[in-house]
Fold this sequence. Notes:
The protein is of the alpha+beta class.
Amino acid sequence: xxxxxxxxxxxxxxxxxxxxxxxxxxxxxxxxxxxxxxxxxxxxxxxxxxxxxxxxxxxxxxxxxxxxxxxxxxxxxxxxxxxxxxxxxxxxxxxxxxxxxxxxxxxxxxxxxxxxxxxxxxxxxxxxxxxxxxxxxxxxxxxxxxxxxxxxxxxxxxxxxxxxxxxxxxxxxxxxxxx
Length: 179
């Protein structure tokens, strides 16, 4: 059976019986005053603990928000991949190429006359995918643009989207112009 701290101190000779009784009375008197509200309770430790808990909760919320953003980014990437793979046009093997600019570099992709016209008119678009480029329809490109506009390499303005106050509307681009 273990002895209380009071008994251990008495046994060790650190305090006498009178000092132990006086300390007990003082402790009971302090508790009685605290219950009545006559003396303020020293709650600095409790305040520090509450502050630490609030800081921990704030850190946890920040971590949860970061994890949620990471999950959302992964979902966007998966949606973009699914949109591209589900709607991309098959690769063409031809000697005719469509040239476009990607990060200040001129790139090219094999096309035929119909695909070239649709790319120029804006009904088809070129996107980055898997280290290469894919040709997809305009409506899919707009969905991808909502999620990540950096994936869109070329999306020309559709001919019906040209505004009426365009100063160059009267000038037609020649059909035989290729670069």
